[in-house]
Amino acid sequence: MKKFIEKLQFITHDIHQHSHIEQANIACSAGAKWIQYRCLTKNDEELLNDINAIAAICDDWGATLIVTDHIHLNGKADIQGFHIEDMDADFVKIRKQLGEAITIGGSSNTLEGLIRLASEGVDYAGFGPFFTTTTKPNNAPLLGVSGYEKAIKALKAKEIDLPVLAVGGVTLSDIDPLMLTGIFGIAASSAINQAEDMRAAYSAFYDSIM
């Protein structure tokens, strides 16, 4: 089942400037069509309180809501998909658990990982880190633009059709060279939600990608 995958995916995080709900609301008001709720610090009740509020915002603005991990919450809120950060996860098993209608994304920092994700039926992949980021600890080598060029070229040679998004320390000035590599899009967080004007930052990212 072919899924809608947005070229600019905004990821919420625990930051002092804005709650997850505020981040989602600001991003959607700026035109966001994809919100990934990433919170690994709350219990299920707190998570569902956030998710239900963000789901209502996404519904109002026509945005897709993706939740990082927490697949046990499937069916308990209006969630369109899940992004699994565990690079060793069994995505065949996860697909059977969640069903075909749910969008499933995975993470990778190697070409081999991307190939495995494609073979196990994910709908898209976050590939990184592009550059240094404090948002999500990752000791993998930085890919840089050349890393994406090589990976996309290899996927095309193998005729693997997988939407790949650059993630990890991507700034506005990085978008043009990254998109020229043939990647599908960008997943961004701190460059947007920690900007002085979050709404303007989102709009600038969107305009550069689209």
TrEMBL record:
- Give the note describing cofactor binding and stoichiometry: Binds 1 Mg(2+) ion per subunit.
Q: What residues does Mg(2+) bind to?
A: D69, D88
Biological pathway: Cofactor biosynthesis; thiamine diphosphate biosynthesis; thiamine phosphate from 4-amino-2-methyl-5-diphosphomethylpyrimidine and 4-methyl-5-(2-phosphoethyl)-thiazole: step 1/1
**Gene3D superfamilies annotated for this entry?**
Aldolase class I
User: What InterPro entries is this protein classified in?
Assistant: Aldolase_TIM (IPR013785), ThiamineP_synth_sf (IPR036206), ThiamineP_synth_TenI (IPR022998), TMP_synthase (IPR034291)
Family named by the database record: Belongs to the thiamine-phosphate synthase family.
Main role? Answer: Condenses 4-methyl-5-(beta-hydroxyethyl)thiazole monophosphate (THZ-P) and 2-methyl-4-amino-5-hydroxymethyl pyrimidine pyrophosphate (HMP-PP) to form thiamine monophosphate (TMP).
Write the protein's name: Thiamine-phosphate synthase
Q: What species does this protein belong to?
A: Pedobacter gandavensis
